[in-house]
Amino acid sequence: MKKTLTNDGSRIICACFEITEKQITDYLHDSSNTIDDLIIETGIGSKCTACLLDFDLLLDKHFKQKVKINKSFEHDKIRNEEVKTKFKVYLNERESGFFINDEKISTTLTFANYGELFEKSETLPTYNYRLRLYDESGKKHVDIGGNLSKYEQKIIRFSSLTECPEKGWFLLSLKAVSDGMQGSIRPQFMLSGNGFSATVHTQPHKSACRGKAVILFPQKSGYNTTIPVINPYRKKANINFVLVSITGQIKQSIDVELPSLGVRFVNIDHIMKPEPCDIPLLLTVKSDIPVRKHVINQLGDNRLSIDHFPNSK
Amino acid sequence: MNNTDSPYFHYLSPKILPVFSSNIGTVSCLTDVQFILNVRSLEKLDGNAEITYTTYCDGNVISEEFTSVKVNNGKSTIEPVWKSFSTPSLGFVEITFGTTKPLFKKIIPEPGYSVLKTINNKVLTINSDMKYANPRIIQQIQQYSRFCMLHSSVYVDSNIGAGNSLMLINPYEQLIVVKIYSSKENKISRKIKPKSTCMVNLAELVDDGEISTIMLTANNRIITYDVRHSYHDQLDINNIDHLDPFSGYSVVNYVGFKELLGEFTRNSLRKLNIRPD
Fold this sequence. Notes:
The structure holds 2 protein chains of 2 kinds.
Chain A: E1 12-14, E2 19-20, H1 21-29, H2 35-42, H3 52-63, H4 74-83, E3 87-90, E4 92-100, E5 105-113, E6 127-135, E7 140-148, E8 152-157, E9 167-176, E10 181-183, E11 188-193, E12 196-201, E13 203-204, E14 209-216, E15 225-230, E16 237-244, E17 250-258, E18 263-267, H5 268-271, E19 281-298, E20 304-308
Antiparallel strand pairs in A: 1-2, 4-9, 4-13, 5-8, 5-11, 6-7, 6-9, 11-12, 14-19, 15-18, 15-19, 16-17, 16-19, 19-20
Chain B: E1 11-19, E2 25-31, H1 33-40, E3 47-57, E4 60-72, E5 75-76, E6 81-85, E7 91-99, E8 113-118, E9 123-127, E10 129-130, H2 135-144, E11 149-155, E12 162-170, E13 176-182, E14 187-192, E15 196-201, E16 211-218, E17 223-230, E18 233-242, E19 244-245, E20 247-250, E21 252-255, H3 257-271
Antiparallel strand pairs in B: 1-7, 1-10, 2-6, 2-8, 3-4, 3-7, 4-5, 8-9, 11-16, 11-19, 12-15, 12-17, 13-14, 13-16, 17-18
């Protein structure tokens, strides 16, 4: 592999600050210097972080000790001091998404609790989970739960759940019940049907927001886009779909009502007039209370592409 | 040696997007200087914002475009710009945004999606990735001293004609060796040349018709996407998603009394079925 060399003839470890292997070893062979001093003085590893692995290997090679760089950072010391005066709480995520469960399309929810690269790990926690399924009107149909142990993956096929409606939204609660790292836990849901599968991560339910935009590309066949909008509250939501040009000029604006705890799969072709083709537009979805939004692009061959709207932060 | 005390940066981390050959489709993104300054800068700029779009394919620069935009008292003098990219074969575009004066406290780019519009007029959403400084990857490497990405819903199904690949983009200067593992202890390796993109079909790694988790590691960070496509054609794409870093965040958090009380109240309302979330 080609090495980047500097005037001192040694390999560059940190490209951001042009710090070479020789500079690091010379610095650290002076027993009055510490790794903390090196990081503070040079910034090594603090910008793009690409060198962290090389830096770690270098320390291992020259100094025969594995150094965890994070142990040197000042903020960890501060955090540990803060901990003494604070209360310990466990991760208690609530994630949501939409589902379709009809003759053509099925939905599967997955979440896994594996060690890094599937290795055995002491740092894995165990979890409790609870899954609730609501239909479009906000009626709850399914409420199940259980445990997720170490080295376990849950694959929940909605078609296998009795009383699962054809369309709706789900709320997944994931609560850690022992210490550890989050690792591989982030859930995903997958839509599949004839000729395709498509996945997207579930998003924190608290990231529901009042207004975000996605790009819409009108075509001759229409917008071919459906926006599932989830209302997580026990009161109805008023939604405003606004189609604007990239310069902010409003093209169309339509209001839609959303039942409490309900979801509406809003087909943009049903509520918006056609616009000139091949000119990208922004579809902003505003609401009087925070709502969760996704986008489904129909690809014209029974296949779908899915994504979520940008989050609140 | 340099010092890094300055709290402000004059650039954001470059954004990386996959790019396809023109017989597949074009990848388009919106550059809105005003929006970027509104959401990321700490001060009003009097100077220039500079944007560079560089497309790469098989280790070569295919195109480079530089735009300098005059900004007066925080106001951009140009409207948002829509840019489209394609390369001779699979490649990527690197979009850098900088200013003539340090303005940014963090170098995380602005949020927003891009799209792939295929020659068959199919439109897919793509989320760009950061070339460096992704906080979740920094945390991961600090925690585990190793790079590890994962996807917990890989699915290849020849019966329904659904294929699944990983797209690996190496925007860096050195060759990257990637190893991809399945939960059933299968493994494949790939070498990704500098400034190039490659797709790895997961049909050779996971069982047909079964949903699987895969993880990958590499000797450097690498930009990764999960690509869904038809079983027999890797470039007949219907969905592009990102992989997750194996999380180095703890499940334990420490909160003050006020936050603890808030959490207790929210949990109580949930138990009483008053608050669903």
